[in-house]
Amino acid sequence: MNHPVSLYAATKKANELMAHTYSHLYGLPATGLRFFTVYGLWGRPDMAPMLFAKAILAGEPIRVFNQGQMRRDFTYIDDIVEVVLRCLDKPATADPSFDPLHPNPATAAAPHRLFNIGNAQPVELLRFIEMLEQALGREAIKTFEPMQPGDVKATAADTSALEAWVGFRPHTPLELGLERFAAWVKDSRSRSPGGWHAARPSHHGRCRPGTFGCASPAVGPPSRRRPPCRRHHRDGVPRSDRAQPGRWQLRRPGLPPAPNALGRCRG
After folding, report:
1. Which tens digit of pLDDT belongs to each residue from 20-55?
2. If you count DSSP H runs as helices and E runs as strands, how many of each does the chain have, helices first?
3. 8 is catalytic
4. Alpha-carbon distances, residue 244 vs 149, 218, 259 (angstroms)
5. What values do phi and psi take at 140, rounded to 5?
6. Neighbours of 7 (CB within 10 A)
7. E strands, the chain, in order
8. Are 267 and 241 in contact (CB under 8 A)?
9. Residue 60 above 70 pLDDT?
10. Are 87 and 33 spatial neighbours (Cβ–Cβ below 8 Å)?
């Protein structure tokens, strides 16, 4: 962890260090959770499970790096949620046995803890693709490519500290998780008007036309209307058009928009 090979890893480490500093200076309980390759319903559209599923169903090739010779500790979303809720119910505390001369990286003299959240069962990438093919009922078209700069060949989570802290560790088998994921993907694809697309939101935070799962009416001024995805429009409660870059305000039907800190309306 002290020698990261990518900017992504470096930002993770920096975040943990800053959280520890706040805990030390202000006594603020902080728990850092390291997620290991999360997959499942409503997954990120730029992650391999969603990208692979979209391409396989569309008959398009998938990019397989390092000739598929990689291992990942895939973790199902339900297990992630369970751990997050349990950690919320048990805030971090200082470790009374912490020894600065022989420090335990998972604890501290401050109320700060770090936990890995992974299935603790790394799987070969090609095996993952094979199981996803079986769950979707279609075969993938594979394009093998070299290793990407900054990537790692294998990840594996040691969850012993997590289990000792909250009495739980991720355990959903990959086969079962992929069956649930594939069923949701196929159902969402059949429900989405105009086809299924797992596109990312655009750079200014709004969803692009045809974004995966988008079935809601447009909001905002006519000149700027774009169909919002379900990240920004859930349960029939639309989010108001932003008045500041990167800011979204949840507006309930029939209620006026909430004022910002200066008293001016955001809507």
Report:
1. 999 999 999 999 999 999 999 999 888 999 999 999
2. 6, 11
3. yes
4. 36, 19, 12
5. -85, 145
6. 9
7. 30-35, 38-39, 61-65, 71-72, 75-76, 112-117, 123-124, 141-145, 233-234, 237-240, 249-250
8. yes
9. yes
10. yes
Q: Alpha-carbon distance 29 to 92, whole Å?
A: 5
Distance CA 120, CA 170 (A): 8
106 Cβ partners below 8 Å, 6+ apart? 113, 114, 115, 161
* Given 8, 22, 26, 39, the catalytic residue: 8
- Which two structure tokens, joined as six digits, stand for 187? 């159902």
> Residue 126 contacts by C-beta under 8 Å, 6 or more apart in sequence?
64, 68
Cβ neighbours of residue 173 closer than 8 Å, sequence gap 6 or more: none
Q: How many angstroms separate the Cα of 48 from the Cα of each of 38, 65, 81, 245?
A: 10, 11, 20, 29
Handedness of CA 34, 40, 43, 48 (dihedral sign): positive
* Percent of the chain's residues with pLDDT above 70: 71
